[in-house]
C-alpha cells in the first residue's frame, strides 16, 4: 500500500504505541512530521526493518517551504549572474558599487554581487531576497504616474487580491489597531513618509523597492464602524514588479513589524 503523502496511511504502518522515543507526543504526530519533511522514518526506533526498507524505497516526503524558497533563490541567483549591472543600475534606481549593485529596501541598503549573493547590515530574509532578485529581472524602470490602484486592479493582480487582503492588509490593520501611533512611528523608522494626525486617518508612503512605492491608508474605528487599511500601488508597478512580488513583500513586512512591535511596545 503506497502512502501517497497521507499521514493516516503512514500511521497505519507505525507501531502505534506512542512510545515518544521520536520526541513527539504520538505516532500520528510522527506520521504528520514525516510527511511534512520534518522527521525521517529512521527516527522511529520500533518501525519494523522490512517496513522501513519498503517505505524508504517508495516514499518521497513533502519539501518544506524553506527548501522550496532556497531552491528558488538559487535559480534566481543563476539568472542574475548573467546580467550587466552597469546597464541596469539606472533603470532599477540602484547604485553601482564596484561590480555590485546597491539597492535600497525600506531605507536599508542591500548589496547584490555579480554572483547574485545578497548582503546587508541587517538580516537577509527570504521575503527580501526573492523580490529583490526578481526585481533585477522584471523591472522596466517605468516612471511613477501618481495613479494609485489596489491589488485587484493591477494587471494580473485579481488572482492574488483575496490572499493579499487576508495575509497583508488584515494583519497590518490589526497592528495599527493594537499599537496605534507606535505602529506609524515604526513605519517612519523604515523611511516611510507618514501623514495625518495621531488617532485620525493616516497615510504612509513606503518604498520596499526603489521603483515600487506602496501607499498604506488607515482609518481608525469610529462610531461602531471597524477600522480599514488599504494598500495601493502606483500604476508603474505593472512594469516594475509582479503581483506575487508585491504580495511577498507586504506579507514579509507585516510579519517583521509584528515581531518588532511585540518585542518593543505595549498595545494600546
From TrEMBL:
Write down what this protein is called: DUF3786 domain-containing protein
A Gene Ontology molecular function term for this protein is: 4 iron, 4 sulfur cluster binding
Where is the 4Fe-4S domain positioned along the sequence? 2-61
Q: Which Pfam families does the record associate with it?
A: DUF3786, FeS
Keywords tagged on the record? 4Fe-4S, Iron, Iron-sulfur, Metal-binding
UniProt organism field? Desulfurivibrio alkaliphilus
PROSITE patterns found in the cross-reference section: 4FE4S
Where in this chain does the entry annotate a coiled-coil region?
none
Q: Which domain of life is it from?
A: Bacteria
